[in-house]
Write a structure and sequence with these properties.
The structure is a homodimer of 491-residue chains. With 491 residues, chain A is of the alpha/beta class. Chain A has helices spanning 2-10, 25-28, 37-50, 77-87, 97-109, 124-138, 152-164, 181-189, 208-220, 243-255, 280-286, 321-332, 339-349, 359-385, 409-417, 422-434, 464-479, 487-490; strands at residues 61-62, 147-150, 170-176, 192-197, 224-231, 259-263, 293-298, 312-317, 390-391, 400-401, 404-405, 436-437, 439-440, 453-456.
């Protein structure tokens, strides 16, 4: 080696190394606010607190992301018992009998061990359970061969979009406000986001006029609109789509030969007793439509809340077998989704049998989680609405409030001086003064000239009143303390 | 709804639906032989066997993929105990004390639960453990901020390649034979595979002349070569790169400003006592080189063999912070790698402490796995070499033999008549006659006019002699039974 080192030293090499400009231009510019600079600053403040720093608050409350277990939601015992038994046969005899049965049933469905790769679409037994769940939900059968288990919903969305969006003039209709996964993925693929606006005054309902106008404008501009995305229940908006809206949407999509991508990860998170979740699949089948539809689901939300395990699935409806085969081949390059996430997906769609010993606790735990979410959804929106300058729609579903905030001119001027979007300036200051981590509306897009922020309803119930009081104080004293004249001095 | 249905029926819509030609052209054509038609046929035969079909064999032996636990390798007890305890606190008191400590230590590193999303690069504590492992291995420190935990190595490779390959004339030097992840990913990205040939006669050693020639030819053709891939130990070749080779490779890469992608997932799978694994990182540091290097590792191989859990990491060396930040932002769109895979990665790089109660069993289990792999590597290659028409290099490392097979003209003619590559025709018939599932050399690429196949050394030791006897019989009677004159009749 010494000899080679010498050669190296004698002939030094001119190295250019690697530069930012070597990166694909498409990945340089997208924003992913849910994990952006506000979160980075929050992590800094968190470690300052740990080191005993004197800050105006005692803890950081992470309301930036729907991460239930990070905010104290307990995992459901039955799910975790099954998963632990699958990983460690040694402890199985100590588990309840129906858990033991489920462990055995699951292991029988693998090729001998959960440590082995599975079919690239996921274990057949679990896809059969998903199909059964869909049948029960919609009243229409589902084919396990049309179901792909995934590492969370995000990886499914990205796989689907990357399979179909391959030209710079390809576009996708995206609800505004939207979850930034969609614009980020489109940006990475070099395709166009075609925004359609939800109707805030109508509790963020679907506005088909807006969608038709957005579509017509995009077509006029030469954009080939490949798909339309809906998020139902809505993220960040918390709205639930009604049947009339879904029918009109399916008809519109079919008329225009635009595939429907239905992000339905919050399907179990509906709190408004006057509403029920209606799947896009059910409407497509009700209408006997041949519209190509992909529906996404996830173990991260609902009442299971297992974000870290990265489980989920998508179901293809009205896709020819040839395309499914290509998507399978695509999935096979990653070999398979993680097996624990697969099993979590199976547990999500099929809990313990009502006859089993685990059932009563399972029901109790689910009810506790659901009831708490429902109470929190109501409290967060009503309390926000009590604040002057804050206007929050009902949180009918999902895990978020997305209030509109009216900002004084002086505050907006101060934001400009700080070179920030006004709502980002709001969220950054909210963090610095109260420890509450939120995401600014500009991270989700919004009607120009309006300002919003998203916060989860997930913090523990006993912390919410105090948290919202701090929010209110911040608004009254800090935000409303600005006026145009003195904005520069205040900064 | 009835009303809407009526509207729908009155105005039927002309639907085009979705067609194969709507897919991105880049994904239509790549091959992924490790999970191709031979495996599909094997799954069919497997279910026929289950239903009692009369076939010329009693079981299917899946030698097509490095999937240790599907072929009977037992998971390591300590790893599984820790994982089960992390998922289910209820069983922790029944676990050995050092396992309990590791469970607590791991949970302390999360934001309260393993069911929560983590940092998008993975839990810091685990990245610190990976950095420590790298330091011990190479003698050079590693920065946890340069480490990204991933869902297996494949997802890391795809993320890295998609970040840098964005023009049709971008190319990557790929060893031939190669693991098809690389050509498949390049094909999906619309970039070029620039093949360099390993030297089969020299036990698949690196042939820098071939690499230089391949590079020069690619440059002459207008290809912008962005990176070079090495797989060390080799897949499918089983070779281990020596220090001299690695030094020359690093110098070549640096000279030509080509980033080095080092697939080092088999770093613990070296069986030849005269060889040790030398990391690309160590050579880069030894040479004080500023070559940008990415090294990939995985929980799927080594002695851990936890393919299903999808754990792994990559380490960036000599990458500017700005690029790392972009890669973090890219990772954040998928939120985080699965937490169980993260913890499995942490366990892979740091087992139980030698003082702990779990250590003796842990050491015994690892030794059993390693010794068995070493014996199997030797048996498979020597037994294959006893067969007339089969020539197999030593399996110095990794999990595969990649023998060259000499096929009679009549056999080649028969393959052509069946519209198959000769080696694919070989593997398909091998499956039909013996139940042994292998992958043909054409799935990995090979020198034109030569034929190979890949089979894992993983089947249980007691099954290998019989399996190789069946292989030999197949070769003697079926393959060598062909001659040019009667090939058409034989089919």
């Amino acid at each position: 080696m010494l000899f080679n080192l010498c050669i190296f030293l004698i002939f030094p090499i001119a190295v250019q190394g690697i530069k930012e400009s070597d990166l694909a231009p498409n990945i340089l510019n997208f924003e992913y606010a849910v994990r952006g600079p506000i979160v980075s600053r929050a992590l800094e403040l968190k470690s300052q607190l740990k080191e005993g720093a004197d800050l105006p608050f005692e803890e950081i409350i992470f309301c930036n992301i729907g991460n239930p277990q990070a905010l104290g939601q307990k995992p459901i015992t039955y799910y975790r018992q099954v998963l632990s038994g699958i990983l460690n046969p040694g402890i199985v005899p100590s588990l309840p009998e129906d858990v033991q049965d489920r462990v055995q049933e699951t292991l029988d469905a693998t090729s001998g061990s959960i440590g082995a790769y599975t079919h690239s679409q996921g274990l057949l037994k679990i896809r059969e359970d998903v199909a059964e769940f869909i049948l029960e939900r919609d009243g229409y059968s589902a084919d396990p061969n049309n179901i792909f288990l995934t590492d969370g919903a995000s990886s499914g969305v990205k796989a689907l979009m990357s399979a179909f969006l391959h030209k710079p003039n390809h576009g996708v209709l995206i609800p505004i406000p939207q979850y930034p996964l969609y614009t980020a993925t489109l940006s990475m693929l070099g395709a166009k986001a075609v925004p359609y606006y939800l109707n805030e005054a109508g509790n963020w309902s679907l506005d088909m006029e807006s969608m038709r106008a957005a579509y017509a404008k995009a077509v006029a501009e030469g954009i080939d609109v490949i798909a339309v995305v809906i998020i139902n229940p809505g993220n960040p908006t918390g709205n639930c789509l009604g049947e009339e809206d879904l029918i009109e949407l399916v008809q519109f999509s079919e008329e225009n030969n635009v595939m429907l991508l239905a992000d339905e990860v919050y399907q179990k998170n509906v709190y408004n007793p006057d509403m029920t979740f209606i799947s896009a699949k059910q409407v497509v089948r009700d209408l006997n439509s041949s519209l190509p539809l992909v529906s996404f689901h996830s173990t991260s939300k609902g009442l299971i809340g297992e974000c870290g395990l990265r489980g989920g699935y998508f179901e293809l409806t009205n896709f020819p077998m040839k395309i499914r085969d290509h998507l399978y081949r695509l999935a096979s390059v990653s070999l398979c989704p993680n097996t624990i996430g697969q099993i979590a997906t199976g547990l999500m769609v099929r809990g313990p049998s009502p006859e089993g010993e685990s059932y009563p606790l399972f029901q109790t735990e689910r009810k506790q989680i659901y009831d708490a979410l429902k109470r929190k959804a109501a409290i967060v929106s009503s309390k926000l609405n009590e604040i002057d300058g804050v206007d929050c729609q009902n949180v009918d579903g999902a895990l978020y409030a997305f209030p509109q905030i009216t900002l004084p001119d002086g505050f907006i001027a101060a934001a400009k001086a700080a070179k920030m979007q006004p709502d980002t300036f709001f969220c950054m200051n909210l963090l610095e003064k109260t420890g509450i981590v939120t995401v600014s509306g500009s991270g989700f897009s919004q009607v120009k000239g309006t300002y919003h922020l998203r916060l989860t309803i997930l913090p523990p119930e006993d912390k919410i009143p105090n948290m919202l009081t701090r929010f209110e104080d911040f608004f009254k004293t800090f935000v409303n303390g600005f006026d145009s004249a003195e904005s520069k001095d205040e900064l």
